[in-house]
Amino acid sequence: MTQENELVTLDPRGGSTHKSEGIAPRPGSLDGLVIGLLSNNKPNSELLMHDVAELLKRRFAIRDVIEANKGSHRVPAPADMIADLAERCDVVIAATAE
Amino acid sequence: MASQPDGKTIRVEKFMSDLTSTRVRHTGYEDAQEHYLADGMGDGLPVVPPTPSKVRAMLDYAGLAPSDVIAEEAVRGVAFTAEKVAINAVMAGCKPEYMPVIISAVQAVSEPPFNFHANSTSTNGVGALVIVSGDIANRIGINSGTVAMGHGFRANATIGRAMGLIKINVYGSVPHRMDKSTFGHPGKYSFCFAEDDDAIPWEPLRVEKGYAADNSTVTVFAANSPIQVNTQNESAPEDFLAIVGDASVVLGERHSEFALALSPELMGYIRAAGWSKQRIKEFIFERGARTGRELNEKHRRITLYEGDDLDRRIPVVESADQITVVGAGGDAGPFAMLIGAWGDVISITKRIQT
Fold it and tell me: Radius of gyration (Cα) for chain A, nearest Å?
């Protein structure tokens, strides 16, 4: 290959400026904790959440269960809903269903 | 490089240094193509190698510095710099004079109501449809006539393709990774056309969206595949629009919007009958509604309607205003195009700075 055939081009790819937050510390047990259930409003998502809550209650001494529904799977949960769950719950489970 | 006695060399070095993207050295054209056809980069078609001089020409035309941020998308935290947008425009085969359209389209998809992150990941599989309204379409050659949504015109093909490449390369919507489209559709390669100002019997899209008649605009949709509706040579608006309205049922329910393009032949019937654009929207809206009972029995339901909803008429979108009507296409043919949008997306219109 002759030198005049050499090509220098630029990388088209960008990236996110978001920093990874990492995973929140996991509790050793759910005994005595308040569990939040965040539904994304897909069909059957609340049903799935209820079943998950019942299963957890059988295994742990759950103190309370707080339910929330973000209204649509297509958009992020409202900031005040996230803040409220963070304030009131020790653990929040978010799930999808169909 | 200040020690260089040759002024030209100094200028070239400065020119080279303000483009900050990683440089890739290729042994030749074929080698460059293999690089850009590699997994996860590009749309699978050969590209125009984005050399610094070609990228610089794009930026110079737009009057932008490489580090200028054209738009920032908050959900993924992506800043669309002028340099990255220009690189992808070069790869798509754009001319520099297409840059103003692409810049406005990138700003449009970055607006929160466009919901770019969600619609770039979803199984629904949409592409970024760019509809141009205004005289820039004629000046840079965006086709609004025969084969308006098809191939054959560089501006349509490469502006649409640039948006697809930007979505993949800058935003990160790489197939099988972030892009989980069940099917996708050919418009994900490229989807751009102009409204035909000479054929429309109604106010131009840019005016409807609040811009002056002498402005040019882009309107960007999160677009599913277009569905061509054959109106069977009916010439009364209530007859051929009934066929279109019935066809719209397949788009689904609870959609935030959809677009409808009518051909010049159909627009001629609209003009002759004296129908307004608003009347078309309201007719299509009503005609596309179905009772909960009908939807339960004949159409796709996950959760069945019950109670009062059994007799309630449930429309495709929540109001007639969520239907965008545009005019384009070749003179002959009684065809309409329905273009569904991804669920919770609002199309965005931006003025093109020319």
Answer: 22
Nearest 5°: the CA angle A93, A19, B108 is 90
In angstroms, the Cα distances linking B14 to B7, B54, B90, B149 are 11, 16, 21, 42
Phi, psi (deg, nearest 5) at residue A85: -65, -40
Q: Which residue of A has its CA nearest to B78?
A: A16
Say how far apart CA B86 and CA B169 lie, in whole Å.
Answer: 12
* Structure token pair of residue A29: 């047990």
Give me the total of CB pairs closer than 8 Å, taking one residue from chain A and one from chain B. 98
Contact B115 A76 (CB under 8 A): no
Strands B323-327 and B258-262: parallel
Q: Which of B76, B303, B344 sits opposite A16 (nearest CB)?
A: B76
For residue A81, with 0-12 CB atoms within 10 Å meaning exposed, 13-18 middle and 19 or more buried, which class applies? middle
pLDDT one-digit tens code per residue, B47-83: 999 999 999 999 999 999 999 999 999 999 999 999 9
DSSP 8-state symbol, B233: T
Q: How far apart are CA B39 and CA B210, in angstroms?
A: 42
The Cα–Cα gap between B328 and B205 comes to 12
For the CA atoms of B191, B224, B209, A76, the dihedral, rounded to the nearest 10 degrees, stands at -120
Question: Which pTM does this prediction carry?
Answer: 0.89
From first CA to last CA, the distance across chain B in angstroms is: 36
Q: For residues B226 and B246, what is the distance between their CA atoms, to the nearest angstrom?
A: 15
How far apart are the CA of B70 and the nearest CA of chain A, in angstroms? 13
Averaged pLDDT in 10-residue chunks for chain B of 354 residues: 35 60 95 89 95 97 97 94 98 98 98 93 94 98 97 98 98 94 96 98 98 98 96 91 95 88 97 98 96 83 82 93 97 96 90 93
